[in-house]
């Protein structure tokens, strides 16, 4: 293959993925099942039917390597896919590095982030099974926006429980959700028993994703016409996101390169898994040496300092117990501006791959991530989402290490979203008002002490 000097690499209609890649077909060790917290037994379809459609439950446990993307979903994907693969030549210059830096830009979606890749199929499969309304939680608001848009495309109602601190910090994301017809409540809210209980204990609770999930699940479980949709963590969500990595692998081949390292930020693991899993396939089945690096905040260091065990996905303990790295479901993350990375747990698939040494994890401080984001913006012209900035901080490290070693490494990272609705966070950074958070060991131990005693 000859070197291609293009800056922006796209795909033709014929080169577009027709199937999602299911890494469950290739996991080095079989996954432990989610457990029913009451019986301690593996959850079956019956446990999940109250809140998920059967098709998504099927995808959750499937070991088929390729799962077809329905034509109705592909038709909506065409509104923004393929997302461009960009060569960040100006960033390479700014860092004076021999490394080749590529990024996949998911901010071109109408939602401004990768989250629409799964919102669309989730709305589609629910609609197929006769569901009229979806509930969900949202942290920084990107997922709520994506699901609102997807529900709007398929004529479903949508109710969003938005973490209160984000509801206050990111008012324009609420506007976006309302434009697409959703109802939005600041969580903890008075709408649910879970919300009222938290408010009684702590009327000023800033909320957390774990609390908002409890509210959305409770709402969905109480109505037959309503299901729940989760924006990350679960296997079927990561499955849908693999369109990112499948396109990227094809685009990299067109550019004449294969990455030495693949990097993405990691909150619940969906944009990381989406980009990295097709490359993990190559690594597991063909032994390619590609490094896969998941980057999280030091303030919420799930993969780097959490424990791999069974834990609840939410605070009230309504969800099944998932085998994952966790900081404890009661963990209250500090109010860092990367709202999408403030989650106590992580995807079971990503967790298992970290445990098995296929995926590496790193943690970055808030100030370093904003510094890298500004460097990226001034080089490439795009303001990154504060979440994506964690990946960029790691890219900077890798590029500088390449310079040190005099190596022309090829780096691929996911620019999971733009930061144009996160400008107050940038204002705060530029005004010198942000600080680093380091999770003290005692706080971590205290939170881990509350883990449920179940499982192996
Ligand atoms: C939600 C979000 C994330 C974090 O979620 P993952 O499931 O870990 O991908 C990262 N970046 C952006 C832009 C997001 O909206």
UniProtKB/TrEMBL annotation:
EC code(s) of this entry: 4.2.1.20
Recorded superkingdom: Bacteria
Keywords from the UniProt entry: Amino-acid biosynthesis, Aromatic amino acid biosynthesis, Lyase, Pyridoxal phosphate, Tryptophan biosynthesis
Reaction(s) the record says it catalyses: (1S,2R)-1-C-(indol-3-yl)glycerol 3-phosphate + L-serine = D-glyceraldehyde 3-phosphate + L-tryptophan + H2O
Boundaries of every Tryptophan synthase beta chain-like PALP domain copy: 79-417
GO cellular component entries: cytoplasm
MF-aspect GO terms: L-serine hydro-lyase (adding indole, L-tryptophan-forming) activity; pyridoxal phosphate binding; tryptophan synthase activity
Catalytic EC class: lyase
Cofactor names: pyridoxal 5'-phosphate
Pfam family for this entry, one: PALP
The keyword Methyltransferase belongs to this UniProt entry's keyword annotation: no
Function summary: The beta subunit is responsible for the synthesis of L-tryptophan from indole and L-serine.
PANTHER family in the cross-refs: TRYPTOPHAN SYNTHASE (PTHR48077:SF6), TRYPTOPHAN SYNTHASE-RELATED (PTHR48077)
Name the record gives this protein: Tryptophan synthase beta chain
Species this protein is from: Desulfofundulus thermobenzoicus
Gene name, Swiss-Prot/TrEMBL: trpB
């Amino acid at each position: 293959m000859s070197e291609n000097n293009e800056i922006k690499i796209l795909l033709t209609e014929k080169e577009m993925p027709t199937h999602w890649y299911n890494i469950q077909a290739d996991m080095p060790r079989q996954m432990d099942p989610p457990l029913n917290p009451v019986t301690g037994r593996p959850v079956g379809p019956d446990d999940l039917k109250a809140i998920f459609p059967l098709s998504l439950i099927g995808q959750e446990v499937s070991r088929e390597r390729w799962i077809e993307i329905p034509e109705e979903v592909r038709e909506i994907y065409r509104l923004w896919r393929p997302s461009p693969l960009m060569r960040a030549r100006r960033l390479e210059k700014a860092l004076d590095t021999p490394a080749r830096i590529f990024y996949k830009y998911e901010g071109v979606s109408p939602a401004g982030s990768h989250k629409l890749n799964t919102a669309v199929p989730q709305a589609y499969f629910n609609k197929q099974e006769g569901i009229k309304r979806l509930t969900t939680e949202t942290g920084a608001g990107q997922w709520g926006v994506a699901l609102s848009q997807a529900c709007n495309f398929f004529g479903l109602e949508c109710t969003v429980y938005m973490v209160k601190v984000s509801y206050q910090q990111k008012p324009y994301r609420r506007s976006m959700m309302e434009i697409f017809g959703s109802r939005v409540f600041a969580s903890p809210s008075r709408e649910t028993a879970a919300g009222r209980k938290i408010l009684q204990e702590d009327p000023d609770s800033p909320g957390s994703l774990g609390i908002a999930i409890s509210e959305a699940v409770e709402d969905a479980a109480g109505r037959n016409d309503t299901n729940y949709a989760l924006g990350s963590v679960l296997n079927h969500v990561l499955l849908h996101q693999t369109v990112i990595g499948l396109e990227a692998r094809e685009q990299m081949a067109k550019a004449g390169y294969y990455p030495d390292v693949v990097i993405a930020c990691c909150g619940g693991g969906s944009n990381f898994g989406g980009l990295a899993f097709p490359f993990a396939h190559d690594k597991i089945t063909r032994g390619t040496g590609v490094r896969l690096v998941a980057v999280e905040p030091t303030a919420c260091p799930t993969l780097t300092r959490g424990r791999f065990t069974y834990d609840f996905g939410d605070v009230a303990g309504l969800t099944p117990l998932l085998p994952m790295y966790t900081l404890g479901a009661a963990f209250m993350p500090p109010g860092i501006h990367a709202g999408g990375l403030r989650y106590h747990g992580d995807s079971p698939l990503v967790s298992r791959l970290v445990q098995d040494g296929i995926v590496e994890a790193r943690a970055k401080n808030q100030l370093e991530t904003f510094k890298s984001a500004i460097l990226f913006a001034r080089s490439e012209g795009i303001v990154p989402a504060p979440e994506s900035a964690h990946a960029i901080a790691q890219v900077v490290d890798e590029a500088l290490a390449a310079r040190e070693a005099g190596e022309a490494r090829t780096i691929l990272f996911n620019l999971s979203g733009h930061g144009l609705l996160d400008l107050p966070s940038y204002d705060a950074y530029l005004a010198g008002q942000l600080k680093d958070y380091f999770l003290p060991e005692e706080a971590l131990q205290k939170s881990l002490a509350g883990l449920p005693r179940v499982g192996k």
